[in-house]
Amino acid sequence: LASLMLRDGNLDRAVVALDQVDLGAEDADLLRYYTLRGMAHLRRNEFDLSVDALEQAVATGQAESIVFVYLAQAYFSLERYRDVLEALDRAGPELQRVASIYHMRAQCHWLLEEPAMALATLDQASEVFPDDTGFLRRKVFFLMDLGLFREAAEQGREYLARSEGKLEDYVAMGSAMRASGELEEAARLLELAKLKFPADTAVRKVLSNTYRDMGRLNAAADLVSEAAQFEPELISEAAELYRRAGRPHQALMLNGQVRNQE
């Protein structure tokens, strides 16, 4: 009954049903009982209670891989990342073909400040799942956080060549290329992003900064002026760029549109 209620999303009623189980009965299935109880608490975001129940399920000595996965999820929510890794290790080889497990492992190593293991896990996952570009995407962001912008830019190009790419991907990759000094590459990538996401201001801002680094102030000013149509607070920045680019009339015209003249 509790299992059916869990399946239907009636979590409170499932717990009530489990409370009525006689654990002292000879035919009581303790593994199933504690597994269901752990699942119910996990889905109710009661992670400490979930861990207690799932650890008792494991203690029966008959737990299958999925029980260790539930336990790892509960540990992760409690930020017990080392325990997550240990639970996944105990789950056995069945998890080697589950993509989400590699993501969880990589994130745990990253949060434990073990970047080499995190990157190695993602590389391993990319070999096991060659068509899944999500691992390469996560690797790019890890590399950026480590300040390895040139490597991030190279991996980013490979990722975008193999996937559609989200808006934030283009912005991040362009920023990585800019930080690594690959300004022409960054500009080309961000110009493509501007065509794909014409109403977004983030792309224009990063592209403007790239052109500014290249000394192309007119192009930078035009981009900020375009972005100011969506974000009026950028008008004064566009005016200043036009002034620096030697276009005082354009600067004055924009300056007059600044709402807060003070």
| Helix proportion | over 70%
Radius of gyration: 26 Å
- Give a quick account of the main beta sheet: strands, pairing sense, barrel closure: none
Total E-strand runs: 0
What would the average pLDDT be, to the nearest integer?
A: 91
List low-confidence stretches: none
Secondary structure category: mainly alpha
End-to-end separation in angstroms reads 69 Å
Count, helices: 16
What is the H-and-E element order? HHHHHHHHHHHHHHHH
Strand content: under 5%
Query: Tell me, what's the shape?
Result: elongated
Question: Could you write a compact summary of the structure shown?
Answer:
The chain has 262 residues and is mainly α. The protein has 16 helices and no strands. Helix 5 runs antiparallel to helix 6 (81-90) and helix 13 packs antiparallel against helix 14.
What does this protein structure show overall?
The protein is 72% helix and 0% strand. α6 runs antiparallel to α7 (99-111) and α9 (134-145) crosses α11 (167-179). The protein is elongated. The chain has 16 helices and no strands. With 262 residues, it is an all-alpha fold.
Helix-strand blueprint:
Elements: H1 2-8, H2 11-19, H3 30-43, H4 47-59, H5 65-77, H6 81-90, H7 99-111, H8 115-128, H9 134-145, H10 149-162, H11 167-179, H12 183-196, H13 201-213, H14 217-228, H15 235-244, H16 248-255
